[in-house]
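hiii, so i know i said id send this last week but things got crazy w the move. better late than never?? heres the sequnce for the chain we talked about at the cafe, plus the structure i predicted for it. fair warning i was half asleep when i ran it
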Amino acid sequence: MIRGKVRRSQLVAPFGPGAMQVLADGTSVITAGLDHWFVPGDKLDQEEFRIHEWRLERHLGVEALYTPPDYRGFSQNADQYNTKLQVPVLRFPAWSFCPRCRALTQHPLHIAERPRCTNADCPQQKASWAPFLAQVPFVALCQRGHLQDFPWVEWVHRTANPDCRSIKLKLRTSGGGTLASQRVVCEGCHKERGLEGITSVESPSREREDETTYLTARLEQGTDFSCRGAMPWLGLGEAGEPCGEPLRGSLRGASNLYYALVKSSIFIPEASSTGVDPRVLAALEEQTIARARANLRDVLGEGELLTAVRLRRTARKNAFRLAEFTDAQLDAALALLEGEPEEAPEQTPEPPGDQAPFRSQEYGRIRNTIDSTELVVREPDAGCAEDVGRLVSRVRLVEKLRETRVLWGFNRIFAESSTPDTASRMALLRRQAHEEGDSWLPAYTVLGEGIYLELDPELLAHWESRDPVQKRLAPMSRRFETVAQERHLNPRQVTPRLVLLHTLAHLLINQLTFECGYSSASLRERLYVSPGSQGMNGMLLYTAAGDSEGTLGGLVRMGQPERFEEVLKNALSNARWCSSDPVCMDSKGQGPDSCNLAACHSCALLPETACEEFNRFLDRGLVAGTLADPKLGFFSSLA
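okay and structure toks below
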């Protein structure tokens, strides 16, 4: 049987629906769609996996968020729920070849055992056992998210409709490590063809105005062989709705095969929860009480209220969890949880380059003190020194936070979506459209702590309007415009404010790894940036990981004035000179997409998990000044 283990959080990213992975026995599989993650049954209690995050639910237009199920064996307890739950996978690619005779064969996606060679001409057939087949290393994909087996039959016959009567394919190699050394042969009609160029793109030419791929343009002379719309993770391995996009060959382990689209949020209490004891809300959300609420809701008639008295009676042996609260407290909390949701303007996921609308709610709450069950923000004991306080107007200690990360789709080929149609990306996660009231997405939560800081808005507005600052940023802005046009991305304004805050966040994270021992991969940045004198200009540096690292208050302690000032000044001092200078500081474009100026692996880049901008839009010069103009940076007076 095809079996494997994976962490639950990895089923959100990077191994969500439509993603490929290799199991311990070498079998390549693809994670199935959401339709079969929770199979209805007598012992299924899906509410146990429920995550309550009201902003993300409204923003993504779904009724619920659920963590991927964990596997539990059978228990002697007859009341045990959620046993034997598994996330299904399918064997993909469906084509395999024999390591001995090199014969290519195709098998169903749902095959449960590793197939063996059945070719009568295989030399190993004369032995006592036939060799296991190895899956082919090539697949084909398109920008719309479709994925299919490489078209072996069509490719070797150079036509989309081959007429060969005896198709017997073999994948031969000359021993080299390149595609040029790989050839597919049809022994039935003695045709053969190499695989060189199948992963490449063909630029527009006189004959063709649009960009296409080598596989689409060259499979059959004079005819485009476009994507067939296959989605094997949904059981549509042969073909779906043809999409017409150019088809590109790829190695099955290539990094551009799957990019999870993850939306994250820091939990903030709803405005309507003001006046309700957060401890009561936490008790009502506890697993056994939540189940009792669900059971009571099912038996109540229309118009009947879910009251504290009824809930205590339904909870039975678990009612002790509510004993410390009065009926009035419980009734107020139940009215909040069971009542009609607040009216809110309809929201849709913003393009990847503009996160300001969704984050404005977080910005409004996290910059002030707050004390709730999921978010605790406090003010430091004292203010910063005058030189630091003049530039950094606000520092807050985030002693507790809960981050929720939701998978709402995925991209292939390019990490950023070339089509901002959110509905089409979400549709890739399931085969059948969800029924009304039953829409959900996979998610997981992590707890952490952090430091929030904000720059002085007046000084920032004056600084970013300076001509030298605008001139310094111009090459980066032009470069990103070119990249956006090449990849058909939504236009985005790269502002001095964004580059300043983003670079400062990277410098501080790198410095914190020395000051308090966190690894840079365990820290994250969250930027709050929008233009204008009244726009957002803050950042949250936090640790949020599935294990215990970063949850003991070490990062919060670094936000106290005496420690924070030292961290900031050390980070700025290190930013003045990089071990790669003067090459790094004088660079006109480096890093991902050449969208960085003075920023390299020696000074400002971070691991992928820590940065939310793909390590782009970085420049030490706008923070601490350049070699030619030391006064250019916003923090030049401190550096």
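btw The longest helix spans residues 467-486. thought thatd interest u
miss u guys!!
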